[in-house]
Amino acid sequence: MRSVALPALLTGLLLSAPASDAAAQQTLTLANGDQLTGELVGIDGGTWVFKYGGAEVKIPAADVTAFTAPEPVGFRLADGTLMAATVTTVAGGLRLQAADGT
Length: 102
Hints:
Blueprint: E1 2-5, H1 6-10, E2 13-16, E3 26-30, E4 35-44, E5 47-52, E6 55-60, E7 64-76, E8 82-90, E9 93-97
Antiparallel strand pairs: 1-9, 2-7, 3-4, 3-7, 4-5, 5-6, 7-8, 8-9
């Protein structure tokens, strides 16, 4: 498993975000406690773009406290590394786990 600090991930670019059914949809948790279930479209600088309720909403990165993707999504990390991984939130960042368990 690879743990990535949230700021490092924010500088990356989301490559793909398949969400084929409700069980596989991604969850974004905001600082105020709200949870949005939908699909992360991308990260543009300090803004997360999330498809929610049929619309794309732009959320400042400072308002994002957690992100979960139970199905692999593709990321380009700040160091240029490409990887497809499931995502869970851990203290201080996100944990990306590739299909092979790394």
